[in-house]
Structures are given as C-alpha cells and as structure tokens.
Write the structure tokens for this entry.
Amino acid sequence: MNIRATVGLFAAQCPHCKSIDFRMVDARNAMERALHWLLQPYRCGLCGHHFFLCRWQSPVGGTA
Ligand SMILES: [Zn+2]
C-alpha cells in the first residue's frame, strides 16, 4: 500500500476520483467482516472504486 492509498483510507471521499458520491456496501469476504467493527466498506457511485472508511469517520450513520 502506498502513501496515497493510506491517506485515501482516512478521507471521507473516494480515494480514486475524490467524489463524495459513494454508498455503504456489505462486507464481501471474511476479512472485511472481521474488520467490520472498525472499517466500513463503501463503493463509489461515480467510478465504482471500492474503499473503506473508519466507522467513526463515516459521513452517514444509522442506515444499517
Ligand atoms: Zn470514485
């Protein structure tokens, strides 16, 4: 993982295209389920990039 990807992990926007048009998605595998308490998986609505946000940084809450 390079530094840009690391920074993107903690930004409330798509790390690929910088869009804020993204939505929460379900965990896809055991690793994501294991991290679900800490990292929430999102998918960008603009470019389709899959990324994670820390739960305490999630821009939307209470939808699950
Ligand atoms: Zn994107």
Notes: The first helix runs from residue 3 to 9. The mean pLDDT is 79. The longest strand covers residues 39-44.
